[in-house]
Amino acid sequence: MKNKFLLFSYHLLFLLTACLATTLQAAEVTLNFRHLTASEGLPSNWVGALLQDQQGMIWIGTDRGLCRYDGFEFTRPAGSLPTSSVHALHEAESTIWVGMDNGLYRYDSRTDSLMPAPTREADRRSITSQVVSIASDNHADLWISTMGQGIFRYNPGRHLGRQQISEEGRTGALQSEHRQLRTHSPAG
């Protein structure tokens, strides 16, 4: 009697495992993909930067300014310059930083507007050229790579922009990986 019960238990366990495995295999993952273009409201089909923020919004930098996509529609923040290309997007400390043709901007969520970032320092140097990439370190500093002005370290709390590295016209991109910054240039 005991052997029959054990045999029955093994068969039942085998059948349950087989049913569970079949159910898991039948549950296919379906990915939905939509191709969004200017026809759907994107300012331009040229996209230079993408970012998904902490709230899940998709920020898209185009050659006709910045927009965000909530999964249903595109909206443009006030002050989004329609004639300026966006080349870099970065989120740090709940702030969206935007690198454009003519400098660094930040998105102000309270006013839903794009504002130039105050980057002027004591010697009157500011970021006036194309921002190609933005990264942050574990000291809450932003590192901004520009085309032609070098790399700047910027602390938003102190509004201090300081030029760190300058190889006229040879600055490449910044990459933040595990809070370590890496730079590279066209020359390597």
Topology:
Blueprint: H1 2-26, E1 47-52, E2 58-62, E3 65-69, E4 74-75, E5 86-92, E6 95-100, E7 103-108, E8 113-116, E9 131-136, E10 142-146, E11 151-155, E12 160-165, E13 174-177, E14 180-183
Antiparallel strand pairs: 1-2, 2-3, 3-4, 5-6, 6-7, 7-8, 9-10, 10-11, 11-12, 13-14
Briefly, what is this?
The chain is built from 1 helix and 14 strands, in the order αββββββββββββββ. Helix content is 13%, strand content 38%. It has a 4-stranded antiparallel beta sheet with strand order 1-2-3-4, with no helix packed on it. A 4-stranded antiparallel beta sheet has the order 5-6-7-8, with no helix packed on it. A 4-stranded antiparallel beta sheet has the order 9-10-11-12, with no helix packed on it.
> What is the N-to-C order of secondary-structure elements (H for helix, E for strand)?
HEEEEEEEEEEEEEE
Number of helices: 1
The general outline is: globular
Rg computed from alpha carbons, rounded to a whole number of angstroms: 25 Å
Secondary-structure content class: mainly beta
- In percent terms, what proportion of residues is strand? 35-45%
Strand tally is: 14
Q: Describe the biggest sheet?
A: 4 strands, antiparallel
Query: Are there runs of 5+ residues with pLDDT below 50, and where?
Result: none
Percent of residues in helices: 10-25%
N-to-C span = 77 Å
Strand order of the largest sheet: 1-2-3-4
**Average pLDDT, all residues:** 76
